[in-house]
Each structure stands twice: as structure tokens, then as C-alpha cells.
């Protein structure tokens, strides 16, 4: 082995040692500050959404940095946070009494099961499956609600962090850029893709959810569905689930109404939801979401499952972002260290107004 090989080996050893130390320290920090991870994610999300307006107010309109920061924080609270918090708080208020909720849900499920069996003689919901479904719903509800009780703490700490990001945005982005151990082109790529991912999840998902919920609740009131306000919140949440979407809520409700003897109302609601709510879903997704980042449905499914377990209802937004960002980092790793040609989807133009 010549001196050059020895020198290279020593450099590699130093790199690995330093990387190991960084990973250990970062792990300790994340473990001990894990409660603030949702706050950091939320602050970054709102920063990206408000970034263009922040620079406009500070650099073109010459607002004081603190005034611009407070104005954007207030606007984001009204437009982004309160609708999500309203839906979460509505579900907590309606489902907070777990024992009473599960008793009503069991009656609801038993009525649907009896009606389907009487008409088809097909025991699709056997007693064993019924018990499994009831237990699963109870566990999921408890887990989601317990994760959401910390929402107020998350929001307060999120805005505390966000203030310092918005007050000196150039400094914040310069710190991120200088700290990233990547090529300049890859840093710009991460900024551009992250901006698109956040806009698609922070703007696209809530708009589609609230839009479908509003359209659906009109039908719930018109056709006399039980608990229309609760169904609004459940429909809005269910709209983010790919493939099945809002049908997971309105189909059982329609069957229940028919089983109760309200056949005309149940059929009318089913037609309304399939046509009007379905049209609203397609309209919003093919107009709004197509202009934003195209996120694969599997990213959304697994992101929601992971996000709900980690962050409660806030995970509806953060979960898909984390999954997509992880896949992006894998692409960046290949681009950074592989000799292969860069895939076409990574060759994105870098513009001055993009993040970082």
C-alpha cells in the first residue's frame, strides 16, 4: 500500500468517525426533544408556504421584520391551522366520550350487518369479524384522539419557532445551505422539491378535505342523515384516503338509513354523494392538485398511517411529507455519490425564487 492509499484510508476513517459522532449526537437531540418534532415540521411547513410573501413584505414593502412575521403568523393561523383544528376539535368533542361513542357505533354496525344479511344471506360481517372491526375502530379512535390532545402545545411551540424563521429568513436559509453536506445543485433541488411537497400537502390536502366535507354535509342535512356535523368531520378526514375516500363514510350511513326504514332518503343520499361529492373530488384534484406536486397514492396511504401514529391529526399533513422527503433523500444520495446519469425527474431548473 503506497502513501496515497494510506492517506485516503485515514481520511475515510476520520469521515466515518465524525459521521458516527454526528449521528449519535443528532439521535440524542431528537430523542430528548421528540415532543417538539411536530412543532419543527409545522414551522417549516408554514415557513415554506409564507416564504414568498415574507420576502415581499420585508424587502419590497419595507415592513419591519417583526411586523411581517406577526402578520404572516396570524394569516396562517386563520387560513391553515384553524380549519384543521376545528375538524380535530369537533371529533374530540363528539368522540371524546369513548364509551358512549363505541356503544352508538356498535348499534350502528349491528344494524348495517343485520340489514345486509337479511337481504343477501351473505354473512360478510361474521361475528368474529364484527368484533375485530369494533376493537380496531376503538383502538384507532383512542390513538388518534390521544395524539390530538397535545395539539395546542404543538401549535404554541410551532409559532414560537416560526417567528425566528420569518424574522430573519435570509439568515435562516443561509444556515441551512451552509450546514448541508451536499453539492449546491442538490441543495437547490431539495429546496425546490420540498417546496412542492409542502404546498401539495399543506394546501392541497386541506382544501380537498374541507371542500368535500362542506359539499357532503349539505347532502347530510338535505336527506336527514344522523349526526351531520360529525359526519362532516369524518368525511373531511376520509377524503385524504386514496381509492375509497369519502365512500368509507357515506356508504355505511346510506345503508344504515335504508335499514332504519328511510329508503328514499338513503338512496337519495347515496346518489348525491356518488355524483356531487365525487364530482367535487375530481374537480378539486384535477384542478388544484395537478398544479402542485403529483404525490403517489401509496405515499399518501403510508404517510397518513405513520403520521397519525406519530403526530395525531397533524400527521395527515406531516406523514406524507416525511415519506416523500425520505424518497427524495434517497434520490439525492444516488445523485451525490453515484456515477450514473441523473434521472430526468431530478434535472429540475433552479430559479432564484425557489427555497434556499
Task: Please characterize this protein's 3D structure.
It is built from 13 helices and no strands. Helices cover 81% and strands 0% of the residues. α4 (98-120) packs antiparallel against α5 (127-148) and α8 runs antiparallel to α13 (315-337). With 356 residues, the protein is mostly helical. The chain has 2 domains: 1-32; 33-346, no CATH class. It has helices at 3-32, 37-60, 65-95, 98-120, 127-148, 151-167, 169-179, 184-222, 228-238, 247-259, 263-291, 297-311, 315-337.
Summarize the helices and strands and which ones pair or pack.
Blueprint: H1 3-32, H2 37-60, H3 65-95, H4 98-120, H5 127-148, H6 151-167, H7 169-179, H8 184-222, H9 228-238, H10 247-259, H11 263-291, H12 297-311, H13 315-337
- Give helix and strand order, one letter per element, not per position: HHHHHHHHHHHHH
Summing up helix and strand content along with how strands pair, one would put the structural category as mainly alpha
Broad shape: elongated
Count of distinct structural domains: 2
- Poorly predicted sequence stretches spanning 5 or more consecutive residues: 343-356
What does the main sheet amount to? none
Instruction: Estimate the strand proportion.
Output: under 5%
Distance between the termini: 43 Å
Number of helices: 13
**Total number of β-strand segments?**
0
Give the integer mean of the pLDDT values.
Answer: 75
Using only C-alpha atoms, the radius of gyration works out to: 24 Å
What fraction, in percent, of the residue positions are helical? Answer: over 70%
Transmembrane segments: 12-29, 67-88, 144-166, 197-223, 229-259, 266-284, 304-330
Family: Belongs to the autoinducer-2 exporter (AI-2E) (TC 2.A.86) family.
Subcellular location: Membrane
InterPro entries: AI-2E-like (IPR002549)
Amino acid at each position: 500500500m503506497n502513501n496515497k492509499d494510506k492517506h485516503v484510508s485515514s481520511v475515510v476513517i476520520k469521515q466515518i468517525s465524525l459521521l458516527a459522532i454526528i449521528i449519535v449526537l443528532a439521535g440524542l437531540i431528537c430523542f430528548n426533544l421528540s415532543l417538539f418534532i411536530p412543532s419543527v415540521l409545522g414551522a417549516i411547513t408554514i415557513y415554506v408556504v409564507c416564504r414568498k410573501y415574507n420576502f415581499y413584505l420585508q424587502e419590497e414593502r419595507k415592513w419591519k421584520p417583526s411586523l411581517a412575521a406577526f402578520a404572516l403568523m396570524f394569516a396562517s393561523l386563520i387560513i391553515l391551522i384553524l380549519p384543521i383544528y376545528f375538524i380535530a376539535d369537533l371529533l374530540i368533542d363528539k368522540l371524546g366520550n369513548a364509551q358512549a361513542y363505541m356503544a352508538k357505533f356498535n348499534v350502528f354496525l349491528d344494524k348495517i350487518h343485520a340489514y345486509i344479511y337479511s337481504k343477501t344471506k351473505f354473512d360478510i360481517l361474521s361475528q368474529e369479524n364484527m368484533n375485530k372491526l369494533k376493537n380496531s375502530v376503538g383502538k384507532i379512535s383512542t390513538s388518534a384522539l390521544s395524539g390530538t390532545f397535545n395539539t395546542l402545545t404543538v401549535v404554541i411551540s410551532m409559532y414560537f419557532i416560526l417567528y425566528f424563521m420569518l424574522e430573519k429568513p435570509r439568515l435562516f436559509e443561509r444556515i441551512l445551505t451552509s450546514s448541508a453536506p451536499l453539492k449546491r445543485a442538490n441543495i437547490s433541488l431539495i429546496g425546490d422539491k420540498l417546496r412542492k411537497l409542502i404546498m401539495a400537502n399543506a394546501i392541497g390536502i386541506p382544501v380537498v378535505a374541507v371542500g368535500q366535507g362542506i359539499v357532503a354535509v349539505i347532502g347530510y342535512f338535505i336527506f336527514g342523515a344522523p349526526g351531520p356535523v360529525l359526519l362532516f368531520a369524518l368525511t373531511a378526514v376520509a377524503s385524504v384516503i386514496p381509492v375509497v375516500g369519502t365512500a368509507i363514510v357515506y356508504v355505511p350511513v346510506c345503508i344504515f338509513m335504508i335499514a332504519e326504514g328511510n329508503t328514499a332518503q338513503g338512496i337519495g343520499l347515496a346518489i348525491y354523494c356518488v355524483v356531487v361529492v365525487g364530482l367535487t373530488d375530481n374537480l378539486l384534484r384535477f384542478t388544484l392538485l395537478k398544479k402542485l406536486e403529483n404525490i403517489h397514492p401509496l405515499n399518501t396511504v403510508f404517510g397518513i398511517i405513520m403520521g397519525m401514529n406519530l403526530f395525531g391529526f397533524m400527521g395527515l399533513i406531516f406523514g406524507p411529507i416525511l415519506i416523500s422527503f425520505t424518497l427524495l433523500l434517497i434520490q439525492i444520495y444516488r445523485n451525490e455519490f453515484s456515477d450514473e446519469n441523473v434521472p430526468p425527474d431530478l434535472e429540475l431548473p433552479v430559479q432564484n425564487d425557489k427555497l434556499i
